[in-house]
Structure formats: structure tokens, C-alpha cells
């Protein structure tokens, strides 16, 4: 018989990360373990807390419905994926079960899942995110960052331009910025020429989701930055709306509900002519390996969430020359750390 367990895990960060939404030094996630016929598969599901969903909500949904969705065995994992995809539950719950099923598919086939799905093993180059900080702190963070291909900088603080100037002085790499809905139209108008001069090449979610008119009016500026929506785009329906006031979208498994759902969102964005950024929250290598299966559909890879963790509950990913290297073992290519140091709640 199949067995399913879910665990709420608090992932501690190496340092406090600041954005316009506040400060975090740990994030809660849920990890599931599926065992059947001697095979153990894992999946991670992240709650979207800024939308009011908690790790408890995700865990309760999995505990209530997970076993019934997976069925007594996994002789037909594709049918189980369809049931999970159609499940009316928090996206993080669907993400967790979807991830475990993709891990199972590879393990039962004794091959890496990325290989089965014809995805590349090396993906990138990825970014590294710099939180809101002083100019000196930001420059130090860039100097100490892992070797990556670009930087994403959180903005919305009082010293945005000085911070970006300090970063530009210590790196020639591409810079994109993420306002997390913190700007208004007048701020964007005033900052754009200076951002252009610093080589910033796009901005994520500059205005609140509800301020559609601000997006439309900003796009009328002759020398604006390209706009990519994160909080403002979650599913296929919102992709169709996004094409009218943005240039691209950010895709995260925790918003879409797993690999299968995110693939639909990415395909819709491609059809709409939108740029696609494949991104994540602060997540473990398990969740990053799930998202990595979609790399061929992305224009930019923003999969750096695991790089901020103090203790890694799963291991198996590499980072070479700014590119993420997926594990070559069966399934998602990651395994529980030998001595995981994580806070269970």
C-alpha cells in the first residue's frame, strides 16, 4: 500500500532578507514523502504567505486529501498528476504532490526526471537576489555572492539609486529590479532615466496589482523599462490579462500549483508573446529541482532560493559558472541531507 506523510519545515536563512514587504530570516514550507513498492519519493510545496496562505493550510489540505488523490498505488502516475492538477486546494499543496509524483516518475524509471522529460541538466545562468540594504551593504553582498549570471535587486527603499550605483561599481553583470508593488507611477517616472543609465534591464511588479492604469500609463513612456508581473500573474487567465499591460511574467510553482500547471502558464505566455522568468521563493534544493524541469520554456532563470539557506534539508544540486547543475540520480536528483539540521514545527 502507498503511504503519504507531510512535514512542516522552517527553513532558516543565512541572513535577514529585506524587501518592501518587510524582513524575513526564516520561511515555512511543507515537504511530503510518498512511499510505495520500496520507492520513496519527495516533494516540496511552498505557501504564498502574502496571499494569506500558511504552511498549516498546505499541510492540512495534503493530510485531508493527498492519499485519495494519489490512490492505493502509483501504477498510473500520469492519472494521479491529472487528479492533483484538478484539485481545489492551495497551490502549495498541489505543488508538493506534483513534485513527489515527478520524483516518483524518475525513480520508478531509474533515470533522472529531467532526462525523461528531455530537459537539460545545466540550466541558467541564474540570478542572485540582493535585498533592500544600504549602498555599502549591497556592494558587500554582491562581492560575497555565489558565482551567478545576473543580480536581482529588491527596491522600494529610500536609497534605491545609491544602492544600484554601488552595485554597478562592483559588477558588470546584468541587473534587474523587483519593487514588490512598492512604487507609484510618479516614482517610476522619476527613477526610470537613472535606472536606464545604470543598465537596469527590467523591473518586476513595480505597482500594486490593482493599479492597472499605472501599468498602462507607464508603458506609454518612450524610454520605459520592460515590466514583468509576479504577484499580478498566477494562472492562464491572468496571462491573458497581463499581455495588455506588461512585457512578461514571473512563473513560480508555488503560484501555479506545480510543474504541470506552471507549464500551462508558460505556454500561454509564449503564445501571448510575453517574456517568461522562471523563479522561486526561498526554497530548498528539492523545490528548485522541481522548477528546473521547466527551464526550456523560460527566457530567464531566477532559481536562487536555495542559495540563501543556512541548513539544506536536501542535497544534490550544483552551481558551476552561474549555471545550476541538476543531480544525475533517479528522480529529481536530490536526496535528504545526511544530517539535516532543520526546525520541524
TrEMBL record:
PROSITE patterns: MR_MLE_2 (PS00909)
Domain of life of the source: Bacteria
One GO term (biological process): amino acid catabolic process
Gene Ontology MF annotations: catalytic activity; metal ion binding
SUPFAM superfamilies: Enolase C-terminal domain-like, Enolase N-terminal domain-like
Keyword Metal-binding: yes
Keyword Transmembrane helix: no
Domain Mandelate racemase/muconate lactonizing enzyme C-terminal: 135-228
Keywords: Metal-binding
Name this polypeptide is given: Mandelate racemase/muconate lactonizing enzyme C-terminal domain-containing protein
Source species: Micromonospora wenchangensis
Amino acid at each position: 500500500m502507498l503511504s503519504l506523510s507531510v512535514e512542516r519545515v522552517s527553513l532558516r536563512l543565512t541572513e535577514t532578507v529585506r524587501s518592501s514587504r518587510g524582513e524575513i530570516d526564516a520561511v515555512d514550507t511543507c515537504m511530503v514523502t510518498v512511499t510505495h513498492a520500496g520507492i520513496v519519493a519527495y516533494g516540496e510545496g511552498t505557501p504564498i504567505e502574502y496571499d494569506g496562505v500558511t504552511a498549516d493550510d498546505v499541510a492540512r489540505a495534503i493530510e485531508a486529501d493527498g492519499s485519495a488523490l494519489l490512490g492505493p498505488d502509483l501504477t498510473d502516475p500520469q492519472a494521479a498528476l491529472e487528479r492533483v492538477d484538478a484539485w481545489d486546494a492551495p497551490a502549495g499543496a498541489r505543488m508538493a504532490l506534483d513534485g513527489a509524483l515527478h520524483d516518483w516518475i524518475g525513480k520508478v524509471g531509474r533515470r533522472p526526471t529531467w532526462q525523461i522529460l528531455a530537459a537539460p541538466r545545466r540550466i541558467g545562468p541564474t540570478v542572485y537576489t540582493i535585498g533592500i540594504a544600504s549602498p555599502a551593504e549591497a556592494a558587500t553582498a554582491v562581492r560575497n555572492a555565489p558565482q551567478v549570471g545576473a543580480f536581482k535587486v529588491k527596491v522600494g527603499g529610500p536609497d534605491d539609486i545609491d544602492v544600484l550605483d554601488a552595485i554597478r561599481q562592483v559588477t558588470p553583470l546584468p541587473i534587474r529590479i523587483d519593487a514588490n508593488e512598492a512604487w507609484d507611477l510618479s516614482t517610476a517616472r522619476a527613477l526610470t532615466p537613472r535606472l536606464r543609465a545604470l543598465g537596469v534591464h527590467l523591473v518586476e511588479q513595480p505597482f500594486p496589482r490593482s493599479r492597472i492604469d499605472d501599468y498602462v500609463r507607464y508603458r506609454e513612456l518612450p524610454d520605459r523599462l520592460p515590466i514583468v508581473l509576479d504577484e499580478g500573474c498566477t494562472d492562464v487567465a491572468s496571462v491573458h490579462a497581463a499581455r495588455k499591460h506588461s512585457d512578461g511574467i514571473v512563473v513560480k510553482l508555488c503560484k501555479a500549483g506545480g510543474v504541470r500547471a506552471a507549464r500551462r502558464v508558460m505556454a500561454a505566455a509564449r503564445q501571448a508573446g510575453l517574456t517568461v522568468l522562471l523563479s522561486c521563493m526561498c526554497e530548498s534544493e528539492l523545490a528548485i529541482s522541481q522548477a528546473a524541469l521547466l527551464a526550456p520554456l523560460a527566457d530567464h532563470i531566477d532559481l536562487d532560493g536555495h542559495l540563501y539557506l543556512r541548513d539544506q534539508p536536501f542535497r544534490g544540486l550544483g552551481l558551476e559558472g552561474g549555471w545550476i547543475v541538476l543531480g544525475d540520480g533517479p528522480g529529481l536528483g536530490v536526496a535528504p541531507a545526511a544530517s539535516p539540521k532543520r526546525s520541524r514545527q
